[in-house]
Write a structure and sequence with these properties.
The protein is mainly α. The protein has one domain. It contains nine helices and no strands. The protein has helices at about 5-30, 35-70, 70-95, 130-160, 165-195, 195-205, 210-220, 225-255, 260-280. α8 packs antiparallel against α9. It is globular.
């Protein structure tokens, strides 16, 4: 049984990692309201972060945990199955959305998504942009990141309980890639609603699933956590992140940018995530 000081330290590290999404949200607001090229690069950047961390970190953790429990061969199989189950789950959710409200269904005239048309700003507040696709994308990204952060919060918390130094390293790594994830939520919500407060609140809320994961890990799951459970969770989350990136973030980034804006953002996001992971090894 751990003493309360150790528990509070572990929870504090998890809260710090989750709160980093709010930092990403704040950074996003340095751009001008009507700068659609920034929107394209930011969404591409976020897609790059999600793709890179899914394939090189989260899926790797899934296979490692499952291999520990079931052997290398079956661990690889179970990780791959969990990955595609995650894609299937988020794909099924997407299909359940009515066609007329689903931004992934091509319009009858084949036209691409139109740029938001901002209303003139007043009293220094950004204008209102009427684009339900961007708003929905921000909400779905927040949900995906929340699902992703839940097992990460649990992993950070349990690692810190076992080894404070290991918990600190994991918390810093998670915080670094939560910053661009905060951008992926706040930017589309900000451009869709014109409200900094709504964008910031939703972005910060998506990161709070990390301390929620920690609390549940301590109160409910501590007697049931196993390498198999964590491996399946990480595999499914990797699939969800890849689906969100390819189905929403990157297509919308291309539609709002010019030339290779979205590609530059994509490569930049992958490079930033690679660098952050390498520096903490």
């Amino acid at each position: 049984m751990h003493d309360w000081s150790t528990v509070l330290m572990a929870f504090g590290l998890t809260l710090f990692a989750g709160a980093a999404t709010a930092i990403g949200s704040a950074i996003a607001f340095f751009a001008r309201r009507t700068n659609y090229r920034f929107l394209s690069v930011a969404l591409g950047f976020s897609g790059g972060v999600m793709l890179y961390v899914s394939f090189t970190e989260i899926l790797h953790k899934s296979q490692g945990a499952l291999s520990e429990a079931h052997g290398e061969r079956w661990g690889a199989w179970l990780a791959a199955i969990s990955f595609f189950v995650g894609i299937g789950v988020i794909g099924a959710i997407d299909k359940l959305v009515p066609k007329e409200e689903n931004p992934h269904e091509a319009p009858a005239d084949g036209a691409l998504i139109k740029e938001p048309a901002p209303v003139p700003a007043s009293a220094g507040e950004p204008g209102q942009a009427h684009d339900p696709r961007l708003l929905r994308m921000g909400l779905v990204s927040a949900l995906a990141i929340g699902i992703h952060n839940f097992p990460e919060g649990l992993a950070t918390f349990l690692s810190a309980l076992h080894d404070a130094r290991l918990g600190l390293v994991i918390a810093i790594a998670v915080a670094l890639h939560n910053i661009p994830e905060g951008i992926s939520v706040s930017v589309p919500v900000f451009y869709a609603t014109g409200s900094r407060k709504k964008a910031f609140a939703l972005s910060a809320l998506s990161g709070m699933s990390e301390p929620v994961g920690a609390i549940l890990g301590w109160i409910v799951l501590r007697q049931f956590v196993s390498p198999t459970l964590m491996g399946v969770l990480f595999g499914g989350v990797a699939g969800i992140m890849v689906f969100i990136s390819l189905d929403e973030l990157l297509p919308t980034a291309r539609e709002y940018g010019r030339g290779h804006d979205s590609l530059y953002g994509l490569v930049g996001g992958m490079a930033a995530m690679a660098l952050s992971l390498l520096l903490l090894k």
